[in-house]
Amino acid sequence: MQASNVSVYSGSWRYPSSMPDFLDLRYYQRIARVLEEGTFDLMFFDDRLAMPSIYGSSPAEAVRHGARPIKLDLTAVLGAAAAATTHLGLGATYSTTYYPPFHVARTFATLDHLSGGRAAWNVVTSVNDAEARNFGVDQHLGHDERYDRAEEFIEVVTRLWDSWEDDWLVMNREAGIFADPEKVHELDHQGRYFSVQGPLTVPRPPQGRPPIIQAGQSGRGQRFAARWADLIFTADPSQAIAAEHYRGQKELITAEGRSADAVRLLPMAYVIVGETETIAREKEDIFLNQLVHPMASLTLLSELTNHDFSGYALDDEVTDELINSVSGIRGLVQGVKRHLGDGPMTLRTLASHRATLLQGPRFVGTGPQVADQMQEWFESRSCDGFVIAATHFPGAFEDFVRLVVPELRRRGLFRTHYTGSTLRENLGLDRPASSFTKPVSGANHG
């Protein structure tokens, strides 16, 4: 999701049935209700802390073409969604580079309590200099240093969530004892990046620790996800690539001493479904060829790579010289070539893979046809599930719930109702013990 005028697909605002009231909380509540009707695990929001303004050192093109210029604060958006639903998980992106750990820990602990255990945190290290300048920093941190900071950040956050043990409440009104101070712990953390006293001002979340979502694609990012993530968000363009990624990531998880089955790999997929295959293919053509302005694509490519492409033409070839001079573009080029082949590539082609429907798998057809494609990915161990990206709001999700979910349920591939009371329970994830709770020895256990 995006708390924005667009979905991840940057042309979504132009689709005729896209709702225009994205600045009204009822917009997000409508979408949340649709997802809960379809028994989705959660809705989670991507986010950035700046307009796309690397291209031409200006946000003008992003504003002109609606290329994600609006990004609402997610606390209010998820609060509204929580009030409109009872089971749907609620995930938000918060950066480890520009927010302090105490703020993030308190935000998600509060959301978890007020939603009855439905919060999830999408951990990002942020991507570009535009974000840095919005927070009084001249230049974005380097790739490895961002992950060094993120490692310490998440250690502090999880310890803050643990700083109240589960059995803290006494509530003895007669004696005037509210809580057991022996069950509430200071951290006294002194690290390379952070100094945090603690304890957190919010008791331990209902889930113990809200599930962690992570989408690192680099080698360092994949190792970070293997250590910390409960849900890993991927963007592999084909089933063969996804299956290879799946095997490699699961090996990294096992190497961290974790159970590979305790972490879910979820590729982002666009679903274009119609009452007939002809209808679905006509819609696909509209989304692929008619709604995304090329300048919107190039603006978003500049944001992603932290490089100003305003001095290039759309049909300029992506040369080895360009790849060597632009930090962060090599992996993107390699991914697109694995999808399209190893021939010459233009900036137009490269940029379109970030702004149109070409950056992940695309399932197109009737409900049964889409279910066939999803079932093949799932049963071949190419994924543990999917992140469904919308081509437009709320119609893409309405179509999916109306046409695809019943077919998945009929095949026994998807739930018919929620069985857990928390997001962790619905995901089949264990609730972690507090790191401050001392284990009870077997000899003394009553």
Give the SSE layout.
Elements: H1 25-37, E1 42-45, H2 60-65, H3 74-84, E2 89-95, H4 101-114, E3 119-124, H5 129-134, H6 143-162, E4 169-172, E5 177-179, E6 189-190, E7 195-196, E8 212-214, H7 219-228, E9 231-234, H8 239-255, E10 264-273, H9 277-289, H10 294-305, H11 320-325, H12 330-340, H13 347-355, E11 362-365, H14 367-379, E12 387-389, H15 395-410, H16 423-427
Parallel strand pairs: 1-2, 2-3, 3-8, 8-9, 9-10, 10-11, 10-12
Antiparallel strand pairs: 4-5, 6-7
Helix pairs in contact: 1-3, 4-6, 6-7, 7-8, 10-13, 14-15
What key phrases describe this protein's structure?
446 residues; alpha/beta; TIM Barrel; 2 domains; eight-stranded parallel sheet; two-stranded antiparallel ribbon; 16 helices; globular
Task: Give the structure's gist in a few sentences.
With 446 residues, the protein is an alpha/beta fold. Helices cover 41% and strands 12% of the residues. The protein is built from 16 helices and twelve strands.
